[in-house]
Amino acid sequence: MQQRLSAGMTRRRLLLSGGGGVAVTLFLPELSAFAHAGRAVAELTEFPTKRVEARDMTAYIIGLRRSAPRGTEWAKEYLPKAAALVAKHGGKAIIRAEVGGNSTPRLLALEGTPPLAVRMIEFPSLELAQAFHDDPDYAPLKQLRQANVDMEVFVVERM
Question: In 3D, which of 137, 135, 133, 123 has the Cα closest to residue 153?
Fold first, then answer.
């Protein structure tokens, strides 16, 4: 729908991100005074503006290892290739913790039974995290990991 601007009005377009992306068009007064039905309605010396910023859409892929790996040879192929794909999609590993042992950071149970290990990868958005997980180049690596270690893998958005 096309609208004509009244004299002294300016069009501002904002793109709000949040799933599908929403475009909002604002019509704002440009003059110090504007008229309505032929009468001055308000003297506008300063028009207050508020900057609208997209919410932080950071997302995390979290892997919880529930069993000891069935061998270690698979990791020699998996780790460097998976790390390259994580970087390709804007991600970075931020947590690699295991129960017991000398690993740092450590994983300590506070309540319940913890997994044997936790892996967390940060991505700029949920869409990029999913793009990494769904990348066709990751499919054979995912099968390799699934054949050698039992993990629960999920993605969550930051609050």
Answer: 133
**Are 22 and 16 in contact, with CB atoms under 8 Å apart?**
yes
Looking at residue 144, what DSSP letter applies? H
Q: Smallest Cα–Cα separation from 61: which of 137, 134, 148?
A: 134
The secondary element (H helix, E strand) that includes residue 129 is helix 126-134
Q: How far apart are CA 46 and CA 43, in angstroms?
A: 9
Among candidate residues 48, 41, 52, 46, the one with its CA nearest the CA of residue 6: 41
Tell me, what amino acid is at 130?
Answer: Q
Give strand pairing partners of 34. 42
Q: What is the pLDDT of residue 34?
A: 38
Q: What is the mean pLDDT of residues 105-112?
A: 84
Which pTM was predicted?
A: 0.63
23-64, pLDDT tens digit by residue? 333 344 443 333 434 443 333 334 444 443 444 589 999 999
